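Appendix B. One record, verbatim.
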Amino acid sequence: MKKHGLTIISTLGFLILLTSPLFSGGRQNHDHRSHALENLRIEDPWIRPAPQAGGTSAGYAQITNSGTSPDRLIHVHTTISSMVELHTHIMEGGLARMRQVAGIDLAPGTTTELKPGGLHIMFMGLSAPLSDGDEVELTLVFEQAGEITMTVPVRNPPDRQGHHH
């Protein structure tokens, strides 16, 4: 009886070890809401759906620099498009127009919002359509902090959630 009890405890302990994050080969739930690199936190990243290959889409997030030094988003790598640029919107002749920027400044102690109608990541020459619910791998490259690779969801803009166009 004692031997049987030890076997159950040993088996239970082994199962607990197998299911713990330390022994599960790094498997974790995909939490798209927040990613961190050094003093930078990237929160709520998302990409707008695009109906056809060859078209364009845009990516958004909030990037908080909790450090004491400035940093800068200088590039984004991905396989979903042939070209990626960092963009802003400017008013020109009473019209809002997109313009490429060399980088997106991240002042210390601030949150910079990449959002529709403002700073954003532009994906051009999409290799395939992007549908609500898809996931895309992106690598964000920062001047000081380096690179962070993350899986980002494709979803409709917050004001259009659940609506199809």
